[in-house]
Amino acid sequence: MDLNLIRILAPEIILICTALILLLLDLLVKRKETVAFAGIIGALLSFYVNIRLCALGWSGSTLSGMFVFDGYANFFKLIFYINIILTIFISLKYMALDGASFGEYYALILFASSGMMIMASAVDLIVLYLGLELMALSTYILTGITRKHLRSSEAAVKYFFLGAFSSAFLLYGISLTYGLTGTTNLKEIAIALQGLNLLENPILSLVLIFMIVAFGFKIALVPFHMWAPDVYEGAPTPVTAFMSIGPKAAGFAVLGRVLFDAFGAMHIQWSQILIPLSIITMAAGNIIAIAQTNIKRMLAYSSIAHAGYALLGIIAGTSGGLSGMMSYMLIYAFMNIGAFAVVIMLRSEGFRGEELSDYEGLAKSHPLASAVMLILMFSLTGIPPTAGFIAKFYIFMEAVRAGYLPLVIVAVIFSAISAFFYLRVIMYMYMKEPQKEVSLSTTPALYIALAATAAAILIMGVFPSLLIELAKMSAMGF
Amino acid sequence: MPGTYIPINYLPVLIIIIIAASVGLAPLLIGILLRPARRYPLKLSPYESGNPPVGEPRYRFSVRFYIIAMLFVVFDVEAVFLYPWAVAYDKIGLYGFVEMMIFIFILLIGYIYVWEKGALTWE
Hints:
Strand content of chain B: under 5%
Number of strands of chain A: 2
Radius of gyration of chain A: 21 Å
Strand content of chain A: under 5%
Helix content of chain B: 55-70%
Shape of chain B: flat
Oligomer: heterodimer
Largest sheet of chain B: none
């Protein structure tokens, strides 16, 4: 037996084993905090092993070259670990308030995340699909986990149907690729495309469209975004935070890898598809967000718009652009989890706290929470010295460097439009009189998560070089 | 050449599809043409083994049926995977044995889980 196999897969194996243990632990213990705590321990252990493997300089592939351990995958895995831990931190109180403190919840978060990690490491379309389904099925259940609420169930059913639809698109794309090239391995596809002279084949455009539709659904590109606002609004808020980051980052990971590794020679063709998608995504996301009165819906449209910006990194088609996309996803993870953590804070017994008007005059009664929200909203807009600025600056710079100046100008214009609805939240908090008594439901874990996100955003905003170096190094293989 | 490819090898399949469809459709067509059309309510009512029909055909099933059906599929697929494994067992050796044990172990945890959750009891 090949020992490399176990070593490279160790982080995923630990995570899946933890999830299985959580399922059994849930049957034994009554306090759900224990299950959550065990989940965090497992995730940290897996993270530690992953770091040790990186420190050993370990890279390579296993499972007959279907699964790789490289910088690109590890960078995304870092995002997934942050996502797991912060999501568990912000979940505890909220799920109890929603009457849905199930132990399965934590197991499902770990299963979904291991699916994402498999996606990030997959260099074979079949393994990629396997990871995608593991992630998707777990997130469908997470969306509907508050089964007593109609909204949650509706969101889950919607997400499930549209998700199954997009999986079908992906499978169609995979089968056409296999029919053309006779392989599902990304590198071998690239070789076959050159070797068999397939680059001019019209079927290949169809393949690209199918793949982009399938992954575009996961990252909520317009026009495949229809599910996002309803699902984000209907799902319990911690789950919304979780799936606005995990599946999106995983979708970007596979989009980047498939387009660069397998279809790298067709950059002109796929960038022609992606450029209009990116423009309408930024347009629809930012403009429709202005009309929202529910903050979760607003953040849903904002996350659609952010997918449009991050897409610039892939369109650029360079390793620099890819590293821009990667650092964008990492910073976006912190910003979004932080914003949803504030939304969770406002939720208390018998009060949803999801309307924009609930934020009126919040700065008077809760100055600290408002200050954190201020940082997060500035960061989402992209105002220095927050990390959101660095993310946008870096990705726009790489796109300009690759020669997409007009597209960057469009992106900057839409970024300016987005200031309206982000800063409106701040305006509500600081410049309006409180209409009603809003009490915050605070827990130590929620405080830690908020402090961590705010600190991360400020630190990455002031000292961005470390992050950018890491992203550059991780994208080196491309 | 792209675009000019005609899958000639699949022609027999197409012919079989046409024959199969016509074998199914022909008796129906012949029946419609030959039989006298004399309709009355009793003749048009659904056939339930000679009994007079009772109630609507569509009513709600207990949701438990679906749970049982899903669990059945999961463990059925496990059995399906065991067949090729058993056939190829002498070629894959210890490695294959360990892998299949892990697979079964994961499903065992699932089994314990559904049992403890009471998904296997009807009430």
